[in-house]
Amino acid sequence: MTISSLTNSIAISIISSLLLFTSLSSSSSSFLSPDGLSLLALKSAISSDPTHALTSWSSNDPTPCYWAGITCDHTTQLVTSISLPNKALSGYLPSELASLLSLRRLSLSNNSLSGPIPTQISSLQKLTHLDLSSNLLSGSLPECLINLTHLAGTLNLSYNRFSGEVPPAYGRFPVALSLDLRHNNLTGKIPQVGSLLNQGPTAFSGNPNLCGFPLNSLCPDPEAQNPNNPNRVFSNPENPGVGFVSNGGRKNGSVIVSVVSGIAVVIGVVFVSALVFRRKWRRSEEGRMGREEKLEKEVEVEVSEEGQKGKFVAVDEGFGLELEDLLRASAYVVGKSRSGIVYRVVAGRGSGGAGAMVAVRRLSEADATWRFKEFEAEVEAIGRVQHPNVVRLRAYYYASDEKLLVSEFIRNGSLYTALHGGPAEPSPPLSWAARLKIAQGIARGLTHIHECSPRKHVHGNIKSSKILLDDDLHPYISGFGLARLVQGTSKSTNPALKKLNLNQITLSPKNIPSSSIIYTAPEVRVLGSKFTQKSDVYSFGIVLLEILTSRSPELGLENDGKGLESLVRRAFQEAKPLSEIIDSTLVHEIHAKKQVVAAFHVALSCTEPDPEVRPRMRTVCDSLDRIKSQ
Q1: pTM of this prediction?
Q2: Which among 614, 615, 464 has a CA at the least distance from the CA of 545?
Q3: Domain Protein kinase, which positions (predicted)?
Q4: What CA–CA distance (Å, rounded) separates 595 from 626?
Q5: 4 has pLDDT over 50
């Protein structure tokens, strides 16, 4: 046989094989949609299907929309959801999944899938929910996931075998995204960027070699570990908690532990020498539902202070959550201030249930100087102040080195954000009716604080960021009592300081946060002065001016050092047009001009330099209520 005839024979053989393959393919899947073919690639990548979850996936079907675990758009017949949790599937994730361009939800949790996440998955631009938790996936966390620009519901990669560092690019995920990277083999420092700063420790726990905020594991200082560094810090063998962070140790019967689950993990610093929290994790088979986590907790609370026990107290009789519920909760950082860190906590979440949402404030470490009886008296005094316009305290926890305040969570942000916009986008303008309603609500709440007790309470830190709004723009005053708790727990040795009431808060100018100084009455900025109810009135007046103008209170500081109050007062003295000082979005509301002017006069009376000239909050409240009927 010649070379030419041999070549022709091979060519004919190849062509015949291709025709046979094409014929077989056509006979089996000629009518199956492209999305169906991509799903068959997933089925081919599954090496074990003991529950027969994919039995209905057949190449003879024209569409995959009726296959188990598959959801399609009724109009386009394109696949929008793959939901196959708890099926005990073994195998890997094929790159063909990237062809499902209309996929919005991918849930393959509680299986035994292994290998890396294919980088092609970043092509799923419509994906909003990705749950690959409780598998055997490995490799590094794919940085390309940040290209999933619509991912805003869930990204759950917990309980896998991912290794390496958390990509700093993950800080570009939306703040609202529920990120869960628990129980992997991640290492290094958690990047302090973007939305990662808003994640609670529940997003990162269970990675022993991961460190940094919000975990309780401090990252070791490279200089301190250098044996040639003269400033090297050595751990104390008598107290492993001093120096480098340790997993735990015993001394005089007390136990030092680093992290607990849920809220205790979220809070970051466990109740050192005050709370003994032992836990054991078990992994077990729960029938065909696959692997499910069981947590056994043994809690012992022991505070070496006058025989008192660490104590969780529900101040609000209607509060149904227990300490155990908070320990198991998911939490997210929503704010940080001089008084501590605030977390949004979702507790008691059941199958299909939304769960109870509360705010938990972990008071700063300086607050440890409170004795239990004093702390209890102060917090319960705060809890007795109940009004529709004051954030309600629901419960508190006391231990010698850990103090938590649990309050209702107001979900629509602050008045400051409503007036000035947030970091991501501006807020829609508020109508005059909404602004007046907000001002009247704040006035009623502050009046109640001033009049509800013979102690003549003082708030001490009224500002727009302390006014929270619900979905109906109903205002709530937050932070009542915090000024007292922070001030009263200073390192002062003066015993009289501990006997101050909530109406006797003494601060020096250096202790007033820069964000609060412009709201602070002139007489309080003097060393050794006290907050009073009249200084609260001044702060309310600044907030009212802020509501009327939508301008920052710091406006004008560079000119005369007096800010917004001085600018508005000078405008009225010079009889300037109202349009020059009010929010421009209110100019078209001609019918409200008299009401707006009346509100300005109330604000200016509240911000009189002489506290004796300022009205009481009851008078302010009545004046604003009269505006409504004008």
Answers
A1: 0.55
A2: 464
A3: 328-630
A4: 9
A5: no
